[in-house]
Amino acid sequence: DTEVTQTPKHLVMGMTNKKSLKCEQHMGHRAMYWYKQKAKKPPELMFVYSYEKLSINESVPSRFSPECPNSSLLNLHLHALQPEDSALYLCASSQVGLIWIQETQYFGPGTRLLVL
Amino acid sequence: QKEVEQNSGPLSVPEGAIASLNCTYSDRGSQSFFWYRQYSGKSPELIMFIYSNGDKEDGRFTAQLNKASQYVSLLIRDSQPSDSATYLCAVNIRNYGGATNKLIFGTGTLLAVQP
Description:
The structure holds two protein chains of two kinds. By secondary structure, chain A is an all-beta fold. In chain A, strands 2, 4, 5, 6, 9, 10 and 11 form a seven-stranded mixed beta sheet that branches. In chain A, strands 1-3-8-7 form a four-stranded antiparallel beta sheet, with no helix packed on it. Chain A has strands at about 5, 10-15, 20-25, 30-35, 45-50, 55, 65-70, 75-80, 85-95, 105, 110-115. Chain B is mainly β. Chain B has no helices and eleven strands. In chain B, strands 2, 4, 5, 9, 10 and 11 form a six-stranded mixed beta sheet that branches. Chain B starts with a strand and ends with a strand. The chains are: A mainly beta, B mainly beta. Chains A and B meet through strand 5, strand 6, strand 9 and strand 10 of A and strand 4, strand 5 and strand 10 of B.
């Protein structure tokens, strides 16, 4: 089973709202990722958590706040977003501790976010 | 800047033909390579990964890796209209000092299989 789930599937929010995206996996993976994908562009890495600790932050604005409450869950808290933040937000997970070249990321279905 | 390059296409092939998708990368130290398929409006779906020089086959898909020339390709045999999608090439970059690595994606090639 290589399933990563994400909720909600769609989200519309105003620039003053606070919302959260949720990601869950039960594959025993210890690395989880947030990506942002704009139309006709490749996924762009935002954050990486490894063993529930933030491992990579790709200089993402502070209006995006990640959280990893446990090894199966990953949240992305959103606050005061801009219309240009509208995109498909993808979560992924992978094993850690293998020979590193074998780490394979599996993506969830994504949350399509529209900021008005 | 580590880069992964793909022809954006569209690559148009007739049904039943072989589709050949190519990718080049700039970091000679790259060790593992992934092909993802992404249908319009959907998330990337892993097709194959490869980390040894040569060919790796999985059903109608064959990944080819040539580290000396720094290219990786994906062949799709007996192409079907359902194969029409964007194919993303990704390279695993070692995150020295960190516990995980990261994928660098190419811009993707749009494949259109004509019935």
